[in-house]
Design a protein that fits this description.
This protein is α+β, with helices and mostly antiparallel strands. Helix content is 23%, strand content 27%. The chain has a domain of 167 residues: Nucleoside Triphosphate Pyrophosphohydrolase (Alpha-Beta Complex), CATH 3.90.79. The strands form three sheets. Strands 2, 3, 4, 5, 6, 7, 8 and 9 form an eight-stranded mixed β-sheet that branches. A three-stranded antiparallel β-sheet has the order 10-11-12. GO terms for molecular function: coenzyme A diphosphatase activity; guanosine-3',5'-bis(diphosphate) 3'-diphosphatase activity; metal ion binding.
């Protein structure tokens, strides 16, 4: 299966070479050279190796800060904790009644590779229409954690191998983003990996789970082009759901919801800049009692 390519702008390429995230320290030229030399087995271009080292320095923002005292009374009154659309640290966010609310764990792989003109692209799937949930939707490779998974990285790469035939040994995991809260109140952890040798990967979709495998330019998720949004509400708090229209090999895809939110965040971290549109990701409340099957509408 062939991947689709599109050029990346010269200005973005330059920014990517220089970019570090706001929460990451900026390595000097000598330290970058040392890092590259010590990771020569990584493969790929020098640009990919520099990017990998920069992403390894990334530290997710804390779920709660010292300024949260303002909201403490509200938390106590609600009988729960505040979580955000971008996610929360499960260990730091106890639920008032764990027997009534169990946050399931999942991880997805944000697998990046370079196209033939130096642009970064991300591997995506279209879920099988035969699946009982999210059928026919665009998603990142990934799924629920198994008891035998050592960590989120193993969950993401194992699922990617099962879904699209991506050998974990081909992917260099460089960082893990803060967890997201899914529509079905699942804790989803995005794991960013780099595929340095794209030619070594032959996509093999699992027909039980995946209908199609394609890729899209990562920078697309920072632009306002081909993007629409809808306002939703969760327990009285409004937020935006983003939709990106994308065409590949004469096929049209809509990338939206959780997948779009994760890719917006991943692109922001990789390129070291916010999107050119308003995300509107306010805080959400997890109530004291959540019935089975409750979803964010």
């Amino acid at each position: 299966m062939r991947f689709n390519y599109s050029p990346i702008s010269i200005s973005l390429k330059r920014r990517l070479l220089m970019a570090t995230t706001p929460t990451s320290p900026t390595p000097n030229s000598s330290s970058i050279s040392n890092l590259i030399d010590s990771n020569s087995s990584f493969g790929g271009s020098q640009r990919l190796r520099i990017l990998a080292q920069q992403l390894r320095l990334y530290k997710p923002p804390p779920s709660h800060t010292e300024n949260d005292e303002i909201d403490e009374q509200k938390r106590e009154e609600s009988g729960g904790k505040v979580v955000s659309q971008l996610g929360f640290a499960q260990s730091a966010t106890p639920i008032a009644d764990p027997e009534r609310f169990t946050c399931k764990k999942a991880a997805v792989l944000v697998c990046l590779f370079e196209d033939n003109v130096g642009g970064l692209r991300v591997i995506l799937t279209k879920r099988s229409t035969r699946l009982s949930s999210h059928s026919g939707e665009v998603a990142l490779p990934g799924g629920k954690a198994d008891e035998g998974d050592a960590n989120d990285e193993e969950t993401a790469t194992r699922e990617a191998n099962e879904e699209i035939g991506l050998d974990p040994s081909l992917v260099n995991i460089v960082t893990v983003l803060e967890p997201f809260l899914s529509k079905h109140l699942m804790r989803v952890v995005p794991v960013i990996g780099i595929l340095s040798d794209q030619q070594a990967f032959t996509p093999i979709p699992n027909p039980a789970e995946v209908e199609e495998i394609f890729d899209a330019p990562l920078e697309m998720f920072l632009k306002d082009e081909n993007r629409t949004s809808e306002e939703r509400e969760w327990l009285g708090d409004k937020y935006l759901i983003h939709f990106f229209d994308y065409k590949a090999e004469n096929k049209e895809f809509v990338i939206w919801g959780l997948t779009a939110g994760i890719l917006i965040r991943a692109a922001s971290v990789v390129y070291g800049q916010p999107p050119s549109f308003v995300e509107q990701t306010p805080k959400f409340w997890v109530p004291k009692y959540v019935k089975k099957g409750t979803t964010m509408r």
